[in-house]
Structure formats: structure tokens, C-alpha cells
Write a structure and sequence with these properties.
The structure is a single chain. Helix 4 packs antiparallel against helix 7 and helix 8 runs antiparallel to helix 9. This protein folds into three domains: 96 residues; 143 residues, no CATH class; 29 residues. The longest helix has 30 residues. By secondary structure, it is mainly alpha-helical. It has a two-stranded antiparallel sheet with strand order 1-2.
């Protein structure tokens, strides 16, 4: 199908971009900087992502294949994508600071870990649900519900009812968690607000997707919003678990030495030429 071809092409471009990020991080950040480690992790996961995609094609788990193996690999593929997004997000977040201090977040830290695990589970179930919607389209919402609840329906069809239920439960949990984080951790307040707004928007998109019988374009929008929400939760968790160390500013002595060097070079340079 045409959207599978677009996905393969964009995946190749993504791999090149991630590898370029790794090179930039290794050359531009000092040894030991945490963003170097997350960038390297992102590079490794991007390679795994490409291998998973290639495996889907090589083993024929594409097009009209409705096997359980395809559903499992699709779920693993989506999980790997979320890990890649998390590492890329952390690389950008960490690169803004010279380092971080890991802090004990107590109950909030545990809740955030559960939220991340829950989002991975929702993402995996959503990928399987999207596969079922694509392979077994319904003519109406009533027909879709009847098939979802039928004990004789295909496994991919019967699993479609699971995703919206756990998504609503997790959405309520995330809104409460974001409120608690926003009140307790000032530096995570913006990310917490962002997460709360996205949860509401994602639930709305989910219902729209359901009532429109999951057209491909709507599935893509729903997935994009899900990935954005995941990034928001990752940043919120990082802001809670890690205390950034601000980039070091030049001391007065270093500033005086730099100024003296500039004055010396200006004095020695030929007229019309200044080297800084």
C-alpha cells in the first residue's frame, strides 16, 4: 500500500538524521556529558527500528497479512519507536544543560514510571487496534461494535475494544498526575500543563477516530498526537527526576584574560584587520 511505501522512505531518512545527531553530539558536547549517552542510545535504537521494519517486509508481515505474528511485531515496533522518541527528547533536553543531578522524586517518581509504562502499553494496543481497523474496516459504528463483541470475530477485531478503555483510564490518571507534578516541581510546571492539554485533545481525537471508523488520515493524526503526548510525559518525568546544572558562565578573571587577548590582537593587527 502507498502509506507503507511512504513509511519505509521516511524511516530511511529518519535513520540518517539520527546518525547525524549522534555525530553532532559527540563532536559538540564534552566527554561525559549525559546528552552524548542518550544520543548514542538513540542511534542504536534507530538501527533496531530499521531492522524491525525490514523484518516486517522480509517475513511478509505487510499488506493483508492478519497473523498474530504481525500484531506482535507491530506492537514491538511501536514500543521501540517510543523508546527512540524518548531518547531523542532527552538528548535535546539534556543538551541545554552542562549536567544534571538525579534526585529522589518519591511517590511522584513511582507514579511517573507507571505512567510511562502505561503509555507504552496503550501505544502497543493502539498499534494493534489500528491494524485491525485497517484490515477489517466496518461499514458503520454499530457494525463495528457488533464485530468487536463477537466471540467468533478475528483476534484483531476483538482487541479493538481494549484500547479505548485503557486509554480513558490512563488519560484520567495522567491529568491527575500532571496536576500533582505541576504543583510540586516548578521546573516541570510547563511540561505538566502541556501534558494535561494534550491528554484532553488526544481523547477527543480518539472519539473522532472512532466515529469516523478510523480512516487512515485520522489514524496518522491520532498517532502524531500520541507521540507528542509521550514526549511531553518524558520531559515532565525528566524535569522531576533530574535537577539541571546550568551552563557555566565565564568568571571575571576569564573575562579579563579574554579582553586582554583581544586588545593585544587588535594592537598587533594591520590596519583594517581585526582578529577575534
Amino acid at each position: 500500500m502507498w502509506f507503507e511505501l511512504i513509511h519505509r522512505a521516511s524511516s530511511g531518512v529518519l535513520l540518517l538524521m539520527v546518525l547525524a545527531l549522534v555525530i553532532i553530539a559527540l563532536r559538540g558536547l564534552p566527554v561525559g556529558h549525559p546528552a552524548r549517552k542518550t544520543a548514542l542510545g538513540a542511534g542504536a535504537i534507530a538501527i533496531v527500528e530499521a531492522l524491525l521494519g525490514a523484518g516486517l517486509v522480509l517475513f511478509g508481515l505487510v499488506a493483508e497479512n492478519d497473523s498474530t505474528a504481525r500484531a506482535v511485531v507491530i506492537a514491538v515496533h511501536l514500543t521501540n519507536t517510543l523508546v527512540l522518541l524518548a531518547l531523542l527528547s532527552l538528548t535535546g533536553w539534556l543538551a541545554r544543560h552542562s549536567g544534571v543531578h538525579i534526585r529522589s522524586a518519591g511517590t511522584l517518581g513511582i507514579a511517573l514510571a507507571l505512567a510511562l509504562i502505561g503509555l507504552i502499553a496503550i501505544g502497543a494496543s493502539g498499534a494493534v487496534t489500528a491494524l485491525g481497523d485497517t484490515l477489517f474496516p466496518a461499514a458503520s459504528l454499530r457494525e463495528a461494535v457488533r464485530h468487536d463483541l463477537s466471540p467468533t470475530a478475528h483476534l484483531l477485531v476483538r482487541m479493538r475494544v481494549i484500547h479505548p478503555v485503557i486509554a480513558i483510564i490512563m488519560g484520567a490518571f495522567l491529568i491527575m498526575l500532571a496536576g500533582s507534578v505541576g504543583r510540586a516541581v516548578e521546573r516541570a510546571r510547563r511540561a505538566a500543563t502541556f501534558v494535561s492539554v494534550l491528554v484532553i485533545g488526544q481523547i477527543v481525537l480518539g472519539f473522532v477516530n472512532l466515529f469516523l471508523l478510523a480512516p487512515i488520515a485520522m489514524q496518522v493524526v491520532h498517532l502524531l498526537a500520541a507521540d507528542t503526548l509521550w514526549i511531553g510525559v518524558v520531559v515532565m518525568a525528566a524535569s522531576t527526576w533530574m535537577e539541571p546544572v546550568a551552563l557555566a558562565a565565564a568568571t571575571p578573571i576569564e573575562t579579563d584574560i579574554r579582553a586582554a587577548k583581544i586588545r593585544g590582537e587588535v594592537a598587533q593587527a594591520p590596519r583594517g584587520e581585526v582578529r577575534v
